[in-house]
Design brief:
- The complex is a heterodimer.
- In chain A, 74% of the residues lie in helices and 0% in strands.
- Chain A is mainly α.
- Chain A has one domain (22-143).
- The radius of gyration of chain A is 20 Å and the shape is extended.
- Chain B has helices spanning 26-29, 51-69, 90-96, 112-125, 140-147, 201-220, 236-249, 261-264, 279-296, 313-317; strands at residues 3-4, 8-10, 16-24, 39-40, 79-83, 103-105, 131-138, 163-164, 167-174, 180-186, 229-232, 258-260, 276-277, 301-309, 324-333.
- Chain B is globular and about 50 Å long.
- Classes of the chains: A mainly alpha, B alpha/beta.
- Chain B: This is Stage V sporulation protein AD.
- Chain B: It comes from Anoxybacteroides rupiense.
């Protein structure tokens, strides 16, 4: 098939295929490690420091999100994501990174029109569709 | 008649690149061509408060160096042509604000470097200016945030993605004898191959580059053998292979003596995906590296084809494809 005549189809053989297998494996391992670490942290809060299950859960979330924001501020989180892919994006840490990176990006436009206005431009989608799904599930739950 | 064939301008007078200036960011200064640029900054802020100001500083720096090397003051220049990638061409417009020179702002995405050079040479050739100053700039962080995502957002980029070059290049064009002559230019058409992936601009731009190169050969009745080097602006790893194939199908074998600026500017271990892109890519490599090589005698006649993806985030989100354009300029070294 000639490129000149059927560019959109013929060009595909020149475009690199993403390595799905390696990417999935990397995502599985890195995402799993982060989650295992977070679970360990929750156990530590409960068993060593005597927090209730709920409180330990919240403290653990605060800690991992804080760490993600720290890594973002240090300019390391994007490198982690390049390796881990979904293993760094779909976690709560990915949400923290989306808020922190947008806030950092727009701090030059000030506190209101910069940071506040743009902070949720990436992470906002999680909140909007999270609410939509919660609503739908709520209705189903009410009926059933 | 200076128009030859369909799209090519052949300059009747002797038009020269009299001086150039280049300023780059940290990754480019650290790259294989680092030493050939006039100024290299250690960080993306270049001593400024914001990235946009940093880009402006790069352009101003490139222009100042260029004027110093050419031994001219701004008052002696009759027209200034410049462009960048940002909305409303803010870098170029704000840089021009500080110069007492009539100004034409240009946008051709990453093809702007050769667009300004071609139009600048035409204005000098036509007698509309004795000396013209041309400049283009791009900045990795300003481009990322305008066209893609926040720089620190964790997004896995594909291998076909390119890395916007941080830098600026300027050239002074005039009829006073210099070492490099601008002899012809082929003005490209907008070609849309129907691709929609902004993370693979090489494949989107390759048809435009191939079209301009082929038209250039047809208009001037030339062949790849007439050039020591045919170089594209920022097709990078994917697009550079495609353009060779496209031209091969058209009956032109450019395999020997072809290169791409996006493949020269970074080392493989710098992990910049498929290579460099952006307005500055073609400008700093041509004005910093290629002209130096011509001075050394490595090449005598080159055809520089700057490629631009006319990308808009809004259009991409509305599922529109990416139009592309490429402008080529012939530069010849002057003997002696």
């Amino acid at each position: 098939m000639k490129l000149r005549d059927h560019y959109q189809q013929a060009v595909r053989k020149f475009q690199p295929k993403p390595s799905y297998l390696a990417n999935s494996f990397q995502a599985f391992i890195s995402g799993g490690l982060v989650c295992a670490g977070a679970e360990g942290l929750r156990a530590l809060y409960m068993n060593s420091w005597g927090f209730s299950s709920d409180a330990a859960q919240h403290l653990m979330m605060l800690t991992v999100m804080g760490l993600a924001v720290l890594l973002t501020a240090m300019g390391r989180y994007d490198a982690l994501s390049q390796f881990a892919g979904a293993g760094a994006t779909v976690l709560l840490t990915g949400f923290a990174n989306s808020l922190a990176s947008a806030a950092m990006e727009h701090r030059t436009e000030g506190w209101v029109s910069g940071i506040a206005n743009h902070m949720f431009k990436i992470g906002g989608v999680v909140i909007v569709y999270g609410m939509v799904i919660a609503y739908v599930l709520g209705v189903i739950y009410y009926i059933v | 008649m200076r128009l030859v064939g369909k799209q090519t301008w052949v300059f009747e007078n002797n038009i020269y690149i009299q001086a150039t200036g280049t300023a780059v960011g940290p990754f480019e200064a650290d790259g294989p061509l680092g030493k050939q640029f006039d100024v290299g900054y250690r960080d993306l802020y270049c001593g400024e408060k914001t990235w946009e100001l940093a880009e402006r500083r790069l352009m101003k720096e490139a222009i100042t160096i260029c004027m110093n090397k050419g031994n001219v003051t701004a008052n002696e220049i009759d027209v200034f042509l410049a462009g960048d990638l940002l909305n409303q061409n803010v870098t170029a417009n704000y840089t021009a604000r500080e110069l007492p020179i009539p100004f034409l702002c240009m946008f051709g995405a990453c093809s702007t470097s050769m667009e300004t050079l071609a139009v600048g040479a035409a204005l000098v050739d036509g007698g509309f200016a004795r000396q013209a100053l041309v400049a283009t700039s791009s900045h990795n962080a300003t481009a990322e945030r305008q066209f893609r995502y926040p720089t620190e957002l964790g997004i896995q980029k594909p291998k076909s993605a390119t890395f916007t070059v941080t830098g600026a290049g300027a050239a002074l064009i005039g009829s006073q004898k210099g070492r490099f002559r601008v002899t012809a230019a082929t003005i490209g058409r907008v070609i849309d191959a129907g691709l929609k992936n902004p993370m693979d601009m090489g494949a989107a731009m390759a048809p435009a580059a191939a079209h301009t190169i082929e038209q250039h050969f047809l208009d001037l009745n030339r062949s790849p053998a007439d050039y020591d080097l045919i170089v594209t602006g920022d097709l990078s790893g994917i697009g550079s292979v495609i353009v060779k194939e496209l031209l091969m199908e058209a009956g032109y074998d450019i395999t020997d003596g072809y290169s791409d600026c996006g493949l020269m500017i970074y080392r493989p271990d710098q992990r910049k995906f498929a290579g460099g892109s952006g307005c500055a890519c073609c400008a700093v490599v041509t004005y910093g590296h290629l002209l130096r090589e011509m001075e050394k005698g490595t090449f005598r006649k080159i055809f520089v084809v700057a490629t631009g993806a006319l990308l808009s985030q809004t259009m991409i989100q509305q599922k529109q494809s990416i139009p592309a354009i490429a402008h080529g300029v012939v530069i010849e070294s002057v003997g002696g």
